[in-house]
Amino acid sequence: MNFRTINPSDFDFIIDLALSEGIRYTRRDLTRILDYEPDGCFIAVENEKKLGIVSTIVFGKVGWIGNLFVAKSSRRHGAGTKLIKEALRYMQNKGVEYPKLYCYPHRITFYKRLGFLTEINVQVLNGHGRETQYENVEGLTEDSIDELIALDERLFGANRLKVLRRFYDEFKEYCFATRVDGRMVGYIMASGAEDEYELGPWICEPRYQDEFVEELLKAEMNRLTGKRIELSSPMHNTLVERVLKKCDLQQKGIAIRMGYGKRVPIGNIEGILGIGGLDRG
Ligand SMILES: CC(C)(COP(=O)(O)OP(=O)(O)OC[C@H]1O[C@@H](n2cnc3c(N)ncnc32)[C@H](O)[C@@H]1OP(=O)(O)O)[C@@H](O)C(=O)NCCC(=O)NCCS
């Protein structure tokens, strides 16, 4: 079994592979994933047969593994294990000290065997955007990006410039922020295509959440009127639970954040209301 970096000639294989697990990727999505970490997305190949893939994204000392898929006919021969080891090797060479990933509950044993420990639980929710009134939330503008990245780094715990900049460039009409005395204290974004969007990141400083959590979500729900929405939200906040219910976002599953080697809290999880994609933290 060999590993090489993914290139666009692999996209048809990846689109079919992800679809067989119920995940719909477009070539545009895959281009974005490759652009984040072109040398850190791997495909396992044996005798010219493509077996499976994994992606990584490095944010300084923190790194995320995502998109681990092995073709059904090639499973239980060690490809998944080797892909994770390849991803870890890449991230460690890049200086990542805290490799993390999200996994489904039934995969916890697989990752524990590889040295990951469970950290937090996240609920995955579904719903539909709809017309809603909101206040004290503004559309994000180019001159606020640096401030947004600094706010995100304080709460997320690592600099996500490459993801947040890309989201703004591709999906600016879905980016909103809120301010207190002129200072940004929260923001929300969404990404997607046609009628399916993923909501997140969604972030707010804990002391301003009573005032702004609901308004930020309503601004995004309103912008996404008529579209199908998916959202992954850490399960730690009763205020968020209430707001999610109010907006008719229904839980469809759970994901678990796991960290490699040691349980290290990064950033301030209290400020993370919606994560920016299971493969991006
Ligand atoms: C999860 C996934 C990537 C694993 O891929 P895989 O190639 O089967 O992984 P491995 O072969 O390394 O390991 C799978 C299991 O087979 C076992 N195994 C590995 N080689 C084996 C062998 N020669 N004989 C018998 N069992 C073997 C492993 O011990 C492991 O068991 P565990 O899950 O109880 O720890 C694959 O099942 C998949 O693509 N699933 C759908 C997508 C998904 O769930 N992705 C992960 C999201 S969290």
Task: Describe, in plain words, how this protein is organized in 3D.
This protein has 281 residues and is an alpha+beta fold. The chain folds into two domains: 2-96, Gcn5-related N-acetyltransferase (GNAT) (Aminopeptidase, 3-Layer(aba) Sandwich); 124-274, Gcn5-related N-acetyltransferase (GNAT) (Aminopeptidase). Helix content is 31%, strand content 34%. It has eight helices and 13 strands. Strands 1, 2, 3, 4, 5, 6, 7, 8, 9, 10, 11, 12 and 13 form a 13-stranded mixed sheet that branches. Strand 10, helix 7 and strand 11 (228-234) form a beta-alpha-beta unit. The longest helix has 15 residues, at 79-93. It is globular, with a radius of gyration of 19 Å. The two termini are 29 Å apart. The model has no long low-confidence stretch (mean pLDDT 96). Bound molecules: coenzyme A. Residues 21, 68-70, 75-81, 103-104, 107, 109-110, 113 line the site of coenzyme A.
Look up the CATH topology of the largest domain: Aminopeptidase
The CATH superfamily of the largest domain is identified as Gcn5-related N-acetyltransferase (GNAT)
What is the number of domains? 2
Can you count the helices? 8
Helix-strand category: alpha+beta
Overall mean pLDDT stands at: 96
Number of strands: 13
Instruction: Report the bound ligands by name, code or SMILES.
Output: coenzyme A
Q: Any guess at the CATH architecture of the largest domain?
A: 3-Layer(aba) Sandwich
Helix content: 25-40%
Model regions low in confidence, pLDDT < 50 over at least 5 residues:
none
> Tell me, what is the CATH class of the largest domain?
Alpha Beta
- Succession of helices and strands: EHHEEEHEHEEHHEEEHEHEE
Broad shape = globular
